[in-house]
């Protein structure tokens, strides 16, 4: 029995290490987005929506452009890309537009995107769209997160001016937090938050881009 | 150790082995932590820099693929780099969901498969995944010049079909293994299982013939003192998908019919191509280097097969250890093993249903 027990322990260690590696590597992106976002405020200080500009990586851009007829080879006009933009925003609905907002801790919903179009530049597609808030709200503390819970898409914000406040009161303070590249700090933080949320946490949250705005 | 204590120990050890196998099997399941049936949310566990490193590596390889294909347009030697990167990517990438780890590992445990067959199944299913990816892009994009939307529609249809196949495959395994388990439960347990005693349980029952066309013949279990377990199960299962399916015996494994049995597993896993491969193929096609994309896809499949085979091997070994431990002395081991097989079969079924009804997250088709 002893040798077999030792063997079992050996195999368990191996199994656990494989599982850990598997868990670590399991979800990883196939699509990369370089994002820029704007938070839109009405004159009375209510938040009305979020405007995104998402630039896809060249592999996905090429994939998305497959089969689209153009007048000039290699150049895609906004009109030629309109059906694709339509498809994009329609598909994004299923994923809640990867945009999660909370006003003073309360979850906020978005309606279907408006003013959407695609732009093709330097062999990359950029999707522009505005997400109107379902019911415009005022919040002392607003949090906005952009991420894919399944981490199929990697969201990275631009270095320069990643997030802008449009029409916000002058005393509003914005903070922007990028995902930690190795996920360690984010995972620990997530641990606390998961306890608080009662298990609503998910893997992709480690890769969330977090915007918080405080308007006294 | 007193007999009771050693029994408890063995029970614990077997439970641990079973847990280890199940932990392996839940592959894609933990992507959806909120619905993780295996316990606490995993993301809450502190994870080290290794996670970041693995993710960074995969992302790096994947992104290099597009750059290398571009480079290959002007410099043919870049194709070699492309193949090397694709291979590495395949190895890393297969650890992700949607590559049949869970199905193949569960199948290996449920069906008492050998390590060699595990390797063959892994490679055959990965090869089929590559072929399907090339066919989808070849037909949709190259021949028909369809849009990404159409291709994604095809991918989604295949996705649903593959989930249904997993569920059907699981249902069939449950049906077959359920019989073995309940027969084992009903079998009289040898009351005095002493070391050195030989037991021969001949169980000639279950000559049942029902409308599911199942002929379960006899079970011969020979328990020897040093823990070898020779189970001879001859099961004939008639199934529309897989034709005749026989319970494995060493003699059958070598025979041509033995390979046909794995066909169900290969089809189930292989029908669903990897989204990454499809992206690479479309990209290569757009660059006028479709052949390089095809080569990259197959090399990627080779890498995938290596990882899946490694995981399947761990599952087989864990099963083997559990078998040796449980069969060491008492007749209850047989029940444990049949129960383990039944559980693994049930897991395939649940996994398929979970995927089908959206409770389990898998790698999704690239539809944006």
Any overview of this molecule?
The complex is a heterodimer of chains A (216) and B (368). Chain A is α+β, with helices and mostly antiparallel strands. Chain A has helices at 2-25, 58-65, 82-93, 184-197, and strands at residues 31-41, 47-56, 99-103, 106-108, 114-121, 124-137, 141-146, 153-157, 163-166, 173-177, 209-214. Chain A has a single domain (27-214), classed as Distorted Sandwich (Acetylcholine Binding Protein, Chain: A), CATH 2.70.170. Chain A is 27% helix and 36% strand. Residues 20-25 and 182-201 of chain A have low confidence and may be disordered. Chain B has one domain (20-25, 55-188, 202-356). Helix content of chain B is 64%, strand content 8%. Chains A and B meet through helix 1, helix 2, helix 3 and helix 4 of A and helix 1, helix 2, helix 6, helix 10 and helix 11 of B.
Question: Which features characterize this protein?
Answer:
heterodimer, A: 216 residues, alpha+beta, Acetylcholine Binding Protein, Chain: A, 4 helices, B: 368 residues, 64% helix, 8% strand
Strand neighbour order, sheet with most strands of chain B: 1-2-3-4
Number of helices, where a helix is a run of at least 4 consecutive DSSP H or I residues of chain B: 12
Decide which structural class fits the backbone of chain B.
Answer: alpha+beta
**How does CATH name the architecture of chain A?**
Distorted Sandwich
Residue-averaged pLDDT of chain B: 70
**Sheet bearing the most strands of chain B, described?**
4 strands, antiparallel
Number of helices of chain A: 4
Largest binding interface between chains: A-B, 61 and 80 residues
Rg of chain B (C-alpha, Å): 23 Å
**How many structural domains in the coordinates of chain B?**
1
The low-confidence parts of chain B are: 18-48, 191-257
Main sheet properties of chain A: 6 strands, mixed
- What is the CA-CA span between the terminal residues of chain A? 69 Å
Number of domains of chain A: 1
Portion of residues in beta strands of chain A equals: 35-45%
What is the string of helix and strand elements of chain B?
HHHHHHEEEEHHHHHH
Overall residue-averaged pLDDT value of chain A: 81
| Distance, first to last CA of chain B | 62 Å
């Amino acid at each position: 029995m002893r040798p077999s027990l030792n063997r079992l322990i050996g195999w368990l260690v191996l199994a656990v290490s494989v599982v850990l590696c598997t868990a670590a590597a399991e979800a990883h992106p196939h699509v990369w987005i370089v994002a820029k976002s704007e938070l839109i405020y009405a004159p009375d200080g209510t938040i009305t929506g979020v405007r995104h500009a998402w630039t896809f990586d060249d592999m996905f851009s090429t994939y998305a452009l497959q089969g689209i007829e153009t007048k000039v080879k290699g150049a895609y006009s906004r009109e030629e890309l309109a059906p694709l933009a339509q498809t994009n925003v329609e598909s994004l609905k299923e994923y809640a537009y990867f945009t999660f907002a909370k006003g003073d801790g309360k979850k906020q919903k978005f309606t279907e995107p408006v003013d959407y179009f695609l732009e093709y530049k330097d062999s990359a597609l950029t999707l522009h769209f505005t997400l109107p808030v379902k019911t415009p709200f005022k919040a002392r503390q607003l949090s906005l997160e952009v991420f894919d819970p399944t981490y199929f898409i990697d969201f990275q914000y631009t270095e320069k001016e990643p997030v802008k406040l449009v029409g916000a009161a002058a005393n509003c303070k914005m903070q922007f937090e990028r995902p930690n590249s190795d996920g360690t700090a984010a995972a620990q933080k997530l641990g606390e938050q998961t306890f608080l949320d009662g298990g609503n946490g998910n893997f992709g949250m480690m890769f969330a881009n977090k915007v918080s705005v405080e308007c006294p | 150790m007193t007999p009771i204590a050693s029994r408890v120990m063995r029970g614990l050890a077997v439970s641990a082995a079973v847990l280890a196998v199940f932990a392996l099997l839940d592959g894609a399941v933990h992507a959806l932590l909120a619905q993780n049936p295996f316990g606490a949310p995993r993301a809450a566990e502190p994870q080290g820099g290794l996670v970041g490193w693995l993710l960074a590596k995969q992302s790096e390889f994947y992104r290099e693929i597009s750059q290398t294909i571009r480079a290959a347009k002007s410099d043919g030697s870049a194709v070699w780099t492309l193949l090397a990167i694709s291979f590495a990517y395949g190895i890393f990438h297969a650890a992700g969901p949607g590559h049949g780890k869970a199905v193949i590992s569960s199948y290996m445990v449920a069906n008492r498969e050998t390590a060699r067959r595990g390797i063959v199944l892994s490679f055959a299913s990965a090869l089929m995944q590559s072929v399907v990816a090339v066919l989808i892009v070849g037909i949709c994009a190259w021949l028909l010049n369809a849009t990404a939307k159409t291709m994604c529609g095809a991918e989604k249809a295949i996705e649903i079909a593959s989930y249904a196949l997993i569920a059907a495959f699981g249902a069939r395994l449950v049906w077959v293994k359920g019989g073995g388990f309940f027969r084992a439960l009903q079998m009289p347990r040898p009351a005095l299982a002493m070391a050195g005693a030989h037991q021969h349980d001949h169980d000639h029952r279950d000559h049942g013939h029902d409308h599911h066309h199942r002929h379960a013949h006899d079970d011969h279990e020979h328990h020897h003192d040093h823990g070898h377990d020779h189970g001879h199960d001859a099961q004939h299962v008639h199934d529309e998908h897989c034709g005749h399916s026989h319970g494995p015996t060493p003699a059958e494994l070598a025979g041509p019919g033995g390979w046909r049995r794995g066909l169900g597993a290969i089809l189930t896993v292989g029908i669903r191509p990897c989204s990454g491969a499809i992206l690479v193929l479309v990209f290569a096609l757009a660059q006028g280097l479709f052949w390089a994309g095809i080569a990259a896809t197959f090399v990627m499949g080779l890498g995938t097969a290596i990882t899946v085979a490694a995981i399947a091997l761990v599952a087989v070994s864990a099963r083997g250890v559990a078998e040796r431990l449980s069969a060491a002395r008492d007749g209850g081991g047989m029940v444990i093993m049949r129960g383990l097989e039944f559980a693994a079969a049930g897991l395939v079924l649940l996994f398929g249903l979970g995927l089908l009804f959206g409770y389990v997250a898998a790698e999704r088709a690239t539809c944006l």
